Amino acid sequence: MDVAIAGGFERFYEVLRRLTPRSELSLTAASTLRRLERSGPHRLCELHVPEGVSQPAMTQLVTRLEKEGLASRGSDPDDGRAVVVTITEAGREAVAKRREGRTRALSALLEQLPAEDHAAIVAALPALERLGELITEQSI
Amino acid sequence: MDVAIAGGFERFYEVLRRLTPRSELSLTAASTLRRLERSGPHRLCELHVPEGVSQPAMTQLVTRLEKEGLASRGSDPDDGRAVVVTITEAGREAVAKRREGRTRALSALLEQLPAEDHAAIVAALPALERLGELITEQSI
DNA sequence: ATTTTTATATCACTAGCTTATGAACCGGCG
DNA sequence: CGCCGGTTCATAAGCTAGTGATATAAAAAT
């Protein structure tokens, strides 16, 4: 049974990939910004593991985000080594804009879907959300 | 409403990204192999548009796949320009292996989910599948 | 006071994409 | 037939975002 789910998810993953505007933000950049938006400022070392990239990659990503004004580096008064990354207002806007683009594309598709399919997807959303929480906890 | 769906999908997309073993195959490579497995040999020009990459990128990808023995280049007897790409047995195995890895990871998560969530996801699968078909048609 | 560990940055390198361009092949038309 | 515009694929050069190895500096441990 789980094989069927995995297969379905696989197809679906491609759908989402296609649905995502190939805009400015890379996958990791977008994901990191969303994390910063969702759960506030983080130290660099708290970001690279859950985002699934190496520490140097996160350093570089933060540098890019900072250069583009989407995030800012701060320091922890209690730990001179730490770098605390915070999302900026422009960063929030970028996330919102990206979400809008995806929503628009998705809406156009959902319209063409039978009402019962639409309903089935809506019904599954909370479950998908909880699935998301599960995986987020475990990989931190 | 669609905003909620898009938001849920966004989270879900990250889940899938995390669930995918960062193994040998790139996203496009895996997606292309699956397409070749699903709907048989294709010309190069029939691949790069639906996969959302430039034609040179597809040429390079096919070269890599060929070098790794996962796909093979053939020619169309009726059109000397065309290159016909076919998945090899090794390619099918690579796809299967990747799917297994994802299934294992997903199963471990699904186990921890309440039964009704599990059921809701299963119930939404056909709808997700049709959504996938929709987008595949439209971007060809 | 050393030593070890932790947090971040830097370096050199690679994969996989892009645009621009080139080369081979097709179909049609004088 | 022979040329010509349009396809199809390949090549070249350059960019982005990743990697592992390693350096540096602060904190923690001995």
TrEMBL record, chains A, B:
SUPFAM superfamilies: Winged helix' DNA-binding domain (SSF46785). It comes from Paractinoplanes ferrugineus. SMART domains: HTH_MARR. The lineage of its organism: Bacteria, Bacillati, Actinomycetota, Actinomycetes, Micromonosporales. GO terms for molecular function: DNA-binding transcription factor activity. Residues 1-130 form the HTH marR-type domain. This is MarR family transcriptional regulator.
